[in-house]
Amino acid sequence: MNIAILSRNRKLYSTRRLMEAAADRGHKVRVLDHLRCFMDITSDKPSLHYRDEEFDSESFDAVIPRIGASVTFYGCSVVRQFEMMGVYGVNESVAISRSRDKLRSLQLLSRKGLGIPATAFAHSPDDVPGLIREVGGAPLVIKLLEGTQGIGVVLAETRKAAESVIEAFMGLHSNILVQEFIEEAKGSDIRCLVVGGKVIAAMQRTAPEGEFRSNLHRGGTAELVRLSAAERATAVAAAKAMGLNVCGVDLLRSSRGPLIMEVNSSPGLEGIEAATGKDVAGMIIGFIESNAKPNRTRTRGKG
Q: How many beta carbons lie within 10 A of that of residue 199, not counting itself?
């Protein structure tokens, strides 16, 4: 098979592992910087250009999007062009867009009846007392909608601190979510790697001393974890609600069961492969081998 990986840096661990796994299975791989792609949008023969090359429907059998959060709009446009060309996408453009919009994704998860932390969203500073009340008061978590890897996430331990931080973000015209703080999680969360409707690997991430954010980029540690049946089912249902074939689902263990924090459409592979010892990249390529067929885009741009 001919496989394209959309990534801005071929040296990144996740990109490199996918390249290696595909090559080990006899596939040809090209890494394309999606910001260097441009598109010929025609009804009879849509094509994609990369530097001095032109690709059409015969050029690739599958595409693996590794789209950074800061370039979601353009990256999804490139993925959509592949879909127009009939190339199989591991994750479709609509599904990636859904997962990247934190508010929209939580609304979709809530509509499916899946567990999420109590969450509130407002525009006006006049509604700050109501926001705090709806999530059960302080301590509470304030999140920038555009934040990634723990950036823009603040724990407000008192009501006064919460009011100050929320008003400051609103004064900067930043969109924020306010969520309840799950104290019983004790600074840990669980990352479940879902591929093709199955949890293939899971790790528990724990925040360093004095920190509540468990992201590995912020000094958190990771270890193998055994999932409950409820946690496994929740992760699979979250991936299905987003329409993602490959994703990381972040869960909190709470007194009322697993709660979904986020669904990541481009999960990093380094931490979870190291913690579990599993060939996650190889499993992703195996999924492509079983499912990649021309014109298999399900959403057709809907949603």
A: 18
Which pLDDT value is given to residue 96? 96
CATH assignment, 2-98: 3.40.50.20
Inter-residue contact 303 to 241 (CB < 8 Å): no
pLDDT tens, residue by residue, 143-179: 888 756 557 788 899 999 999 999 888 888 888 899 9
pTM over 0.85, yes/no: yes
pLDDT exceeds cutoff 80 at 142: yes
Averaged pLDDT, 174-186: 89
Phi, psi of 147 (to 5 degrees): -75, 150
* Residue 285 exposure: Cα atoms within 13 Å on the Cβ side: 25
* Residue 194 Cα distances to 14, 155, 283, angstroms: 15, 29, 10
What residue ranges of the chain are covered by domains with CATH 3.40.50.20?
A: 2-98
Q: How far apart are CA 141 and CA 30, in angstroms?
A: 41
Q: What are 257's strand-pairing partners?
A: 254
Best CATH choice for the domain 184-287 from the list 3.30.559.10, 3.40.140.10, 3.40.640.10, 3.30.470.20: 3.30.470.20
Architecture of domain 119-181: 2-Layer Sandwich (3.30)
What's the token pair of residue 107? 């609304």
